[in-house]
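Working notes for the structural subgroup meeting. M.R. asked for a predicted model of this chain before we commit to crystallization trials. I am recording the input and output together here so anyone reviewing the notebook later can reproduce the run.

Input as submitted:
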Amino acid sequence: MLAQAFLVQQTLLGLKHKVLDGLMTGIQRITNFPIAAVRAGIEITVVSIGWYLGGTVGVGTLLFAFGIGPAVALGLYFVGKFFN
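Returned structure, recorded in token form:
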């Protein structure tokens, strides 16, 4: 219940995406791991915590958790090529 309230508060304040993106870039800068691995790790951790707390994990959830990292990396690559 507390986790749901926290997520609703983040969504209402417009912080949800900014928090995850900031966490992703911060971890990447500190560890120097590829951005795809960092983002996938964050999403897999969030899915694991949600499942542990009793949430449902389906095929779509897993596809998103494992696929968002490479998708972000590909998007950042194309944006970098376009603006450089």
